[in-house]
Amino acid sequence: MQSLRLALALLTRIPVRLATPVTAADHGRAVSAYPLVGALLGGLLMALAGLAVHNGLPVWPTAIALLTLQVVLTGALHLDGLADSADAWLGGQGDRARTLRIMKDPACGPAGVCALLLVLLGRGAALATLLALGTATALLPLLLAPLLGRSACAALFLSLPYVRAGGLGHDAAETLPRKRVGLAIAVALLGTVAVGGGVGALMLGIALLAFLLARQQMQQRLGGFTGDTAGALVEITETLVLLGAALWLGRS
């Protein structure tokens, strides 16, 4: 439970009580709870979406409300990482040191603004499409998308070194229980297909492709990952899998 509480404290703004002191090993173990945090967020969104559909609420206002709730619950943490990463990837011009330096700049440039708009618009459109369908199958992606996004974040810790000394993820990377994290990710991925069926398999395929491409970019540019690039991966993964599910289920 300490791992789950710490993961909730790190990835959301949900108030939790932590046992003190929190050690570096606690941060490592918390990574194994990242997929569960995603499942909890997704379960809440799916339940609220189901209530909205049951009561006949209009789809676009509901989609915007759900999107706003998710941003509030996560404190826009991953969106901040997305904006910083977009600015750094464009402004870094292929240079590692310059890319890392731009990521530390709190200002948001045009690339970051465009990335935020595209992600939020894409997710809002996907949510509206799924709500309009209104079936149980159409609402399942609301559960699976946050699960896959946080599973991708956990997988970064297994597959790449953390490159920013003293950063938010440094202790977790140094003390990571690799078998425990790998098992948590495997359960999440198998659960995606078991619960989601065909649409779950489609979303998993999209998430895996996005992860491999993002991992390649991080490896080439940085030689690893940072908290900002991990947050960007969460947002990109969630948006792509939701869009894929909406396009597949909403086709005529």
Can you characterise this structure?
- There is one protein chain.
- The chain has 252 residues and is mainly alpha-helical.
- It has one domain (2-249).
- It is built from eleven helices and no strands.
- The model has no long low-confidence stretch (mean pLDDT 95).
List the helices and strands and how they pair.
Blueprint: H1 2-11, H2 24-30, H3 34-54, H4 59-74, H5 77-91, H6 96-104, H7 110-133, H8 136-159, H9 170-174, H10 178-222, H11 227-249
Helix pairs in contact: 1-2, 3-4, 3-8, 4-7, 5-6, 5-7, 5-11, 7-8, 7-11, 8-10, 8-11, 10-11
Characteristic terms for this protein:
252 residues; mainly alpha; 79% helix
Q: Give the amount of beta strand, in percent.
A: under 5%
Look at the structure and give the mean pLDDT: 95
Separate helix tally: 11
**What class, by secondary structure content?**
mainly alpha
Unreliable sequence segments = none
Strand element count: 0
Could you provide a short overview of the structure?
The chain has helices at 2-11, 24-30, 34-54, 59-74, 77-91, 96-104, 110-133, 136-159, 170-174, 178-222, 227-249.
